[in-house]
Amino acid sequence: MTTTPTPPLRYVYAVCRPFGGVLPEGAAGITGEPPRLLHHDGLVAVVDAVPAEEFDEGPLRARLEDLDWLSATARGHDAVVASLTAVTSPLPLRLATVCRDDSGVRRLLDEGRDRFVRALERLDGRVEWGVKVHARKEATAGPRTPAGSPSGAVGGREYLRRRLRERDGREEARRRAEAVGRELHARLSAYAEATAVHPPQDSRLTGDAEAVNVLNAAYLVPRERAEGFVALVGEVADSDGVRVELTGPWAAYSFAGIAEAAEPGTGTAGPEPSGPAPEASGAASGPGGAREGAA
Q: Region entry Disordered: which residue ranges (predicted)?
């Protein structure tokens, strides 16, 4: 008995307005092939044909538990969105937003049209920049306590004094970095039309054991203000025991939910992940997940 192959599904990376030209040469998505542009009623969906064996509802649930698969898919997703950012201001959709076919993609655009249009109007001509402020570990460590156990009453008192100095030095360095972060955030916010402050990153997750993150923020900045924004970050970078990290420009992952949240199960943009549904399914992506790795 011959089994009929299941037709490929449609993976949707982003929604944008119509723009002149095509995607930058070399843009490749999760399949390794360039995605295509599906135009519908004044909107454009950026789509890829993906195998149902991986992206249908049941297999997708299992795949989302596979960290290697998830990481590779997120990189491909973000590569497409980054290429779009070079030619337009896209609205990134969640990782693994999947529809049955082109008709399903059109329904996705129809059902989310008002939200998409409002969000695209807000994002037009704007990009996301990320700024992190770190207290350097060497600045937070304070004087080193000699190895070995203290001996005698005098040795014990000196040991405790040193430990207190170390603690005080760490706290003072952190307070200094936090003050730099607060001032920088206030000044950068003047360039931005919206800001998003994310939880500080754990150095165990970032792999940077030499710094303590005290500010992790995203800024929605008009392109014409970008030069001044970047220059301001450069003024305070890497000074007085503080390290400042600038990333971007990105597509506005942190601000993709500025329109109302989608109805559950649609897989469209919104602040909370939606569960898989027969027509579309989604999970969150972005700078915080794939790069850092969205907003």
A: 138-157, 262-295
Are 20 and 68 within one domain?
yes
Q: Which residue in the block uniquely carries the two structure tokens 């040991």? A: 159
Total-model pTM: 0.72
Q: Which residues of the chain have pLDDT under 50?
A: 139-143, 145, 259-285, 288-295
Closest by CA to 294, choosing from 260, 234, 251, is 251
268 with 245, same domain?
Answer: no
* Domain assignment present for 69: yes
Q: Which pLDDT belongs to residue 197? A: 94
So what's the pLDDT on residue 163?
Answer: 63
CA distances to 136, 140, 168, 171, 172 from 159, in Å:
24, 19, 14, 19, 20
Residues 197 and 240 in one domain: yes
Q: Of 47, 27, 28, 29, which Cα lies nearest the Cα of 37?
A: 47
Whether 148 is in a domain gets the answer no
Per-residue confidence (pLDDT) for residue 102, from 0 to 100: 96
Q: What is the CATH number of the domain that holds 197?
A: 3.30.70
Structural domains in the chain (count): 2
Return the pLDDT at 273. 28
Q: What is the DSSP annotation of 112-133?
A: THHHHHHHHHHHTTEEEEEEEE
Residues 6+ apart with CB under 8 A from 199: 216
Residue 150 belongs to a domain: no
The CB density around residue 56, as the number of other CB atoms within 10 Å, is 18
Output the pLDDT for position 138. 58
Domain annotation covers residue 101: yes
Range of the domain at 273: 9-112+262-291
Predicted local distance difference test score (pLDDT) of residue 176: 84
